Amino acid sequence: AKLFRNWSTFNLPILSAPIISAQLRLNTYDFNSPTTSETYELRDVVTDVATLRAGGSGKTAIYADLADGNIYGNRAYTNADDNLFRTIDLNAAAISAITAKSGQAFALGGWINTLDTIDNTEYTFGFSNGNVGDVQLILTTGTPTAVVTLAANYSGVSENSKSNPVYSFSRSGPTTNSLTVNLTLGGTATRGTDYSAYGPTFTSPTTGNIVFAAGQATAQIELVTVGDNLAEPNETINFTLASGTGYTIGTPGPVTTTILNDDGVINQQGTLGNDVIEVSGITRILSGRAGDDILIGSNSAETFIGGADADRITTGSGYDTVSYSFASEGADIITDFNVLDDIIQVSASGFGGGLTAGEVIDSSQFLLGTTATTSSHRFIFTQPTGQLFYDIDGNGSTMQTLFATLTPGSALTHQHIFAA
Hints:
With 420 residues, the protein is mainly beta. The chain has 4 helices and 35 strands. It is flat. A hairpin with a 2-residue loop joins strand 15 and strand 16. Helices cover 6% and strands 40% of the residues. Strands 15-16-13-18-20-11-22-24-26-28-34-33-32-31 form a 14-stranded mixed β-sheet, with no helix packed on it. A 7-stranded mixed β-sheet has the order 21-23-25-27-29-35-30.
């Protein structure tokens, strides 16, 4: 059996504008295979074009080169393609390689990458005549349309938070010229009453725009929430990209930030995203739920429940409790754990490992070190780094889990860990 690979070469013009898209257009001629389709794949070629065009026999290195470079595109062929021209879209890597060869010769390697080990007759481009135009490299050049995306740093913030939500706009492609992007504003919060927005120009209560300055790929809207003393439902702010000239929308739906009510509520709860939750008024419990949250306490006694994902907890002064339901919730950072005032509370049932509910853990279940050395060890505190691990079976086969990091050097003992 013979296995064939092929190549195509092109004398590229000097490119005066960036390539937006590239395709290889081929005359299929004849397809043959015992299966319904075969995939023809295009590859990068490092052999210089002059050597390819010179041809010859015994060129095993060139043969290998035609199918072992970066993949530039592929297409499945069937009998339905016989005697028809078909195009193969070239990917970003191919466009980059073509751009680098502006004004020079450029080569593509090709092979069928779906061949089996059975000695069959399988091919595309069979009985080709080598006519001019059978193989065409089609390049579309010009200024690519910018793709604009939108994201918010926080999913929710306490009404009286000192941390401001920021909406970040990004554009792809050239930044030579300024670009005006339209947006719509929605949600249950009222601009001017519940918050102020800095950065955009508003053309109505629900529409506006933001401008990317020439040379800038990003733009921002910063929100400042307005605190009050009213117990009210959480309120939302939605910014949505709207259609306009010179760009396409990369974030099609609304991006929402929730203003978390912090008045008259004991348990202040976050969203399922990344929140900043700060104590205010009668708040005594801060619940992050999901997301990488920031929980900030005061000089009173509070309970902090980070929930799922990696949270950053600042307890403040006072007798505080940092609570965990499961060791797998995420590796939180407790920035100011005070061994004189604060405790860590864990769920006996959620953590498992034989913890006794309603008691401080036993001294035999706590170790200053890096890994458990007995079957009784459950909590391992690496004092130099402040890392606190849980190991459900001590020195057994189950890996320990990092669930909190305290201030390095903290004088943590078993008496600081309470099983509920």
